[in-house]
Amino acid sequence: NVKDTPLCSVIVPAFNEDEVIYETYKRLKTVLDGISAPYEILFVNDGSKDNTGAILSHICDNDKNIKLIEFSRNFGHQIAITAGMDYAKGDCIVVIDADLQDPPELIPQMIDEWKKGYDVVYGRRAERKGETFFKKATASLFYRFLKSMTEFDIPVDAGDFRLIDKKVCDAMKKIKERNRYVRGIISWLGFKQTAIYYTREKRLAGTTKY
Ligand code: UDP
Ligand code: MG
To answer: How far is the CA of 44 from the centre of ligand 1 (A)?
Structure first.
């Protein structure tokens, strides 16, 4: 059974994250070294203008579990995730932000849910820390408005922090939509989905790119 010793891929889109990216790498490495299964981390440098690229290529040279996808310019968060999915080799694939707002320590719990038979395990934000009233209010309105417009179930208050099975990733790759909203497409695809709740932390450093 592939779920006994799965390969786990972790995709980390990063745009101008040089203040946090090394710490993110260390937190992820600590967690993933603990899951007693092989893993790869795919950083996607989305045309950063700061030192993100240099830091990532240094990490990549020194750790065989790390892969780096370099964009020629800034293409945006959703395209960065998509590129990660194109290269991920894992039996399960996790997408996580680079700024440590999504706790890497939740990944083992996501893998446990996947082993129970879920194909999509998304992180649902029970609480958002360090975000302005405006950001929280607009995000909340956005998710509820989106839900009211669509016939299928897009979970509210869930970002792109999630685990997907390889078969979901393969289905994603067949979607030719270019202007993509990845989490919407994942919901639209169907598959057996579940949520785990977490507190969305403050960014470790830097500012929101949205
Ligand atoms: N990001 C990216 N390309 C962009 C904008 C953002 O790859 O053009 C990455 C960013 O580095 C982070 C994630 O997408 O890892 C989410 O961005 P951010 O934290 O700015 O969004 P927020 O958490 O404020 O919604
Ligand atoms: Mg963030």
So the answer is: 11
Nearest CA to ligand 1 atom 14: 77
Per the CB < 8 A criterion, the answer to whether 55 and 88 are in contact is no
Count Cβ atoms below 10 Å from residue 133 Cβ, excluding itself.
7
Three-state secondary structure call for residue 54: helix
All residues at 6 or more sequence positions from 208 whose CB lies less than 8 Å from its CB, including other chains: 135
Question: Measured in whole angstroms, how far is the alpha carbon of residue 40 from the centre of its chain?
Answer: 13
Rounded Cα gap, residues 35 and 9, in angstroms: 12
β-pairing, 120-128 vs 92-95, is unpaired
* Torsion on CA atoms 7, 173, 150, 75, rounded to nearest 10: 100
Residues of the chain with pLDDT under 70: 152-154, 156-157
Decide whether any atom of ligand 1 lies within 6 Å of the 134 Cβ.
no
Closest CA to 39 of 112, 91, 105, 81: 91
Q: What is the pLDDT of residue 156?
A: 67
